[in-house]
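Attaching the record inline, Q. Sequence:
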Amino acid sequence: MSTDSPTDPAPAAPEPAPEPVLAHELVPDPVDYGSGPATPLADVVRYRLARAQGFAVGMDEFCPTGDDDVEHNVWGAYVRSAVSELHLALLLAELQAGTPLEVAATRVPRYIEDGGAAMEWLWEHGQRLGVDLDRVRAYPLAAAIGRDAEDSLVEYRRARELAAKHPHRIVPTLEEDGRGVTWEAFCDAGPEAWCRATFDCGCESVVAVERDEQGRWSHRTAGAPDDEPKHVMEPGGRCHQLDFLNADQSLLPEAYTGGSTPARAGRIVLTWEGEDYSWDYADEATS
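Structure, as predicted:
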């Protein structure tokens, strides 16, 4: 007779959570916008509740974390769409639940002013009508501002990131009567940037450049021993890289090290060559 104890069956693996979907994928728009029969209000409300949830999720997801005015203005347009969707969803839900129009029309704006109360109310109606609002993911920005505007925002973000990474730019200007082209470099870096840090130590070549927690830059003279005190630099001066670039603007085209490309204004990448800087267009150097 075997003395082996019976083996307990392994617990079943938990079912994976359903993938989040867009509102219209969870609850398709039931309205026939042609000449078909009227759609039951309960079906319309289910769809509207899901749409309102999709925009509510997007309000949090797309909320800007910085102080960029463009980002906040775009987000503001999305918020206005979200509030409109929430208002309509709650109004129709109240009417479907039997609330008189004059009561619902007064109650809904009060709840929307208190955002938390409006969302609780949205979920109560969703549970009542069997809409799993947990599954609804954010509607994209294009749902509120249109695809073209969203594409423009993407391009704006790309240009802003490029400017933050490469604050220097080159600008060619056609001279009067087409007698030639003049070139000039510009710097859009803030006062905290390395290129605007100033020093009066007389160092011609530096190493160990770094920035401390207070935002101060420092360096050590090239060839100096490692235990030599570092020279602290003051922020906010004139861009010393422009001193090299614009010293003789006629030589700027010769300092270009990139491939064949149309002459144009654009962000540039600078490379120290020992005695002067060379440059390439940033969008090509990083592509």
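The mean pLDDT is 88. The CA atoms of residues 60 and 138 lie 9 Å apart.

More tomorrow.
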